[in-house]
Amino acid sequence: MSTVEELQKKVKELEAKLAAAQGNVGPARQKIEVMSSEVVDSNPYSRLMALKRMGIVGNYEKIRELSVAVVGVGGVGSVTAEMLTRCGIGKLILFDYDKVELANMNRLFFQPHQAGLSKVDAAAGTLQAINPDVAIDAYNYNITTVDNFQKFCDTIRTGSLTGGPVDLVLSCVDNFEARMAINTACNELDQKWFESGVSENAVSGHIQFIVPGETACFACAPPLVVASKIDERTLKREGVCAASLPTTMGIVAGFLVQNTLKYLLEFGTVSHYLGYSALTDFFPSMSLKPNPQCDDAYCRARQAEVRARPVVEVATEVTEDVAPVHADNEWGISLVDENSPVDDDVSNLKLVDGVQVAYSIPVDNSTPESSTGGAVAASELSLEELMQQMKSM
Amino acid sequence: MVDESTRKTLSSIPLLQTKAGPRDKELWTTRLKEEYQALIKYVQNNKAADNDWFRLESDKTGTKWFGKCWFVHNLLKYEFDLEFDIPITYPTTAPELALPGLDGKTAKMYRGGKICLTDHFKPLWARNVPKFGIAHAMALGLGPWLAVEIPDLIEKGVITYQEKTEDAK
Question: Do the Cβ atoms of A140 and A118 come closer than 8 Å?
Fold first, then answer.
């Protein structure tokens, strides 16, 4: 039998442990006002600022003014958020409506003691402890419902450090519905974003940069898949929905943040589409033009805006050399002239080898699934009457 | 692809015409009327074929749906609550049907009890936008899912028969 004193001591110990687990121990370091390039052990930014000294990035400190929204804080999104946090991004806005589960522990970032917490709150706590300089907003809701979608759009539109639109939206969601919702929002808001994804069999992934009107949006074509060289018929789906690997997700998050940094800090070339096939270590990349017949009316409107834009903005270097710089083209890399008028090709989709559409959609409007039920005729009844009829069945 | 009986069921459900989602104000009301008409016809068909297996209703906005579905196995009727939201991207994307009571009981589910559909469902849905509606999602998605998963879950003892007094018929 323990004495009261012993029990009180035990309670104190457990409370301390709980506080530590909940991240209530306060920031491990003070906030830093200005990024320093001083090379000392105590400077968390010295290795990043070295990118400037080495001539890779022109102005690294600019990252402190930039805001990025990460939608989906799962296997890809949490790692993405951590990378951006460690890079000293000005502001991160996290969206997710899921809770941390022990089934997530095969992926990076989350820890078993966080099970049961909302993903955004758990992530915000960890990230804030890693880097207190980053402003972090966390939103715990499903963006695809009517009410939440409006809140989501408003946050994207006004979420930057200066109250304007965020600099980039990163889609790290795991389903078609949420991707389409992000696509809808970004086309309407004329917001640049990256789509990312890992296949349900965990052995392929991709990132795609979407500039409304300039590159193909997510609705311009059926979802793209990287050929995994697995015969679909041999893929066993018994008793499972999805597999996942920390490796594939980490690689895709790395690709995503690398291209995010290149875009935000203006260095290197930003990939429009980059695929990854894990089984063959194959990385197809390509540019994708928007579909003039895209289903999304805002995508078509953005395309019209881009076409109406004066062409002068691209300062081209004049070269006399007409011979190809590289006679052979082992990787099938091609440059797409963004200023050339869109041709009349319906699909307009020129996919690189190793990438294909998940399914095809017929162009004609005939009914592929013959229906003996016919089409619904406009009912004489009001909606309320129909609702009542359904209810009383 | 879809089996013959599902195909037959599917073909007798009226197709919808209006391409409108919940953000489309008046057009959405038109779409909603079509949804209800198709659902009513589908339930009538089911009753006529002695295969009545669900009831659904929505809130006033038609964006929140709830109801019950049931499955008869060895002469015993197993009943489940059914719910789903209409996403803003509807009808381009299908509704994600959920059986919250079975959440965590089977691997063939995503969070919140959303059922895991076959590879065939999404392409078939995408090819039939906007003609497919909630009734089609039920026939093509939930119906086959219940037929495969429920007997399996009963056999494994994950779900057990609960005595019920009222009869849905």
Answer: yes
Q: Determine the CATH number of domain B4-156.
A: 3.10.110.10
A186 is catalytic: no
Alpha helices (H) along chain A: 4-21, 46-53, 77-86, 119-130, 146-158, 176-189, 246-265, 297-308, 383-391
Residue A367: list chain B partners with CB under 8 A: 15, 128, 131
Q: Which of B33, B125, B145 to mutate to test the interface with A (most CBs of A within 10 A)?
A: B33
CB–CB contact A371 B15 (8 Å) = yes
ipTM for the whole complex? 0.89
Q: Is B150 exposed, middle or buried (0-12, 13-18, 19+ CB in 10 A)?
A: buried
Which residues in chain A have Cβ-Cβ distances shorter than 8 Å to B126? 222, 359, 361
Q: Is the pTM of this model over 0.95?
A: no
Q: Where are the domains of chain B?
A: 4-156
Chain segment A75-114, per-residue pLDDT in tens: 999 999 999 999 999 999 999 999 999 989 999 999 999 9
pLDDT in tens, A207-247: 999 999 999 999 999 999 998 766 655 555 555 678 999 99
Catalytic residue among B27, B48, B72, B116: B116
Do residue A390 and residue B56 have CB atoms under 8 angstroms apart? yes
